[in-house]
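Human: Here is a favour to ask of a fellow structure person. Comparing notes only helps if you start from a blank page. I am asking you to supply a protein in sequence and structure-token form. Write it directly below this note and I will take it from there.

Assistant:
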Amino acid sequence: MEDGYERNVFINCPFDSRYRPIFHALVFAVYDCGFIARSALEVEDGGEVRIVKIKRIIRECRYGIHDISRVTLDSSTRLPRFNMPFEFGLFMGAQEYGDRRQRTKRSLVLDRDRYRYQKFCSDIAGQDIRAHDNSPAQAIAAVRAMLATALGGTARIPGPSEICRRDAQFRSPSVALSPPACEARRVAVRRVALPHLRVDGGVPGRHLSRVPVPGT
């Protein structure tokens, strides 16, 4: 995969089945805003050690979306899951101590409640922290706001309601978003970097963006 640093977005979030609607919404919103979603779920080298893979992806992404909503006690182990805060820390470390390019990184932190982080990770105060209340629509709105700011007015992107509408259409089993159908809608086909992603009805996880990204 080409480097694509300026348009790559690292999605650092839970991958359990309950979170999947929000994860899919995040991926869709990223693509609908003209960026590329990156994740630890990418399939490139099956032999690559997971932490090495995560560090490589972080290095290749200017933007990061970090969802810390699953920092709760596991019902079986009675221990919290800290993968997301750990990877957020790696991302911030790259921003703080990396080279000139790495210092341009920007992050969005998501949680189910806006101020819950103060009870378990108060050191991240001052970051861009948004609440999604376990709602895919609210997660889409937060991602859209972040990436609209990133574009700095250089390109127009759909509003949050329009992205939600397109996301629902994309997932509808009755709508086949094949490349020819997308071309008919005057949008450009762009390959999703997450080959595992599939939507209802078995439609491959592809998305098409009309939004030009500076430098592409």
In short: The longest strand covers residues 106-111. Residues 73 and 101 are 37 Å apart (CA to CA). Helices lie at 20-32, 50-59, 83-97, 136-151, 160-171, 179-184.
